[in-house]
User: Fold this.
Amino acid sequence: MTNAHLLSVSGRWLRRTALCLLAAAALLPACTTTESTRSNNPSGGPVTGNKPVKTDDPGDSSPLTAPPEPPKATGNPLASIKLWVDPHNNAKLRADAIRAKEPEKAALLDKIGNQPQALWLGEWNTNIYRTVRQVVEQAKEDGAVAQFVAYNVPHRDCGQESAGGLKKADDYRHWIRRIAAAIKDEPAIVILEPDALGLLAKPNCMTPEQQAERLDLLKDGVRVLRQNPKTIVYLDSGHAHWDPAPVFAERLKKAGIEDANGFALNTSNYVTTEENIAFGKKVSALVGGAHFVIDTSRNGNGATPDNQWCNPSGRKIGKPPTTDTKDPLIDGFLWLKRPGESDGECNGGPKAGIFWIEQALEMAK
Assistant:
């Protein structure tokens, strides 16, 4: 083919391209309408033209109805379950980033990054349905079960380092229903609201009406989530260095422990496994023999003498996650808090939840 012919073909191609671009420009208003519909879609789901594609996401404005009583939990629901390892957890990502130049530090971070850990859910999730659905599907592909910590109740943390949560009770009811809808009929583990019962009667935090509202929200949340028998729900119940067992037992009863799979201890704290086992058995005996799980992620050295909870120095990772506890009352030793994620802006740490590599390395040594 001659150069002249090449130029002729090229010229015709350019004219055709120009005509196509003009035609496409005429369609821009339609494209703008579609994008606008996407941004206003309360479910955040996919859209086609001006009509949102139907999803199972109930959104934030669907009617709220009281869930029926779920089937009673029996036995250890975690038995034989494979816990999911998030391949994108911060410790693993940082380890991979420094492995070539700093292999020793990467190996320390691997002690954290290679373990199954819970994903915390809160107002930082821009689309809670999509986040939970994606994680549940990823875990399913790996033949495993994801763990979540629901942490978004109104008046969360009583204004302390992790202050926040949703503003209104109905906002929370919608939020927890979106989580349940995203799990669908797949298996999942949900730890419900760390500190919610422990801080229930904290002075200058909530009025008696707000305390009653919180208990009602927890009870509703348990029932909503357990409409799927494969969703395993544990109500957070503090730890062995907090209020006495009878206090937590009464709060658990009012929060719906009878409908849950059990309760969780030491979430995001440092108290030893042995102390929590003894405490958990006392609580269990007061609530009908309920099972429990213990967060062992950061309790390798136990708590400080003065029970510091916000980035205390000298703490270590604890017993690796397992569902084989050799104890009929203890369903699992889990890593609910991700080691290396800050408790808050204290003791040199960044904001709560931010990965702090210096702390992670110290804990893993």
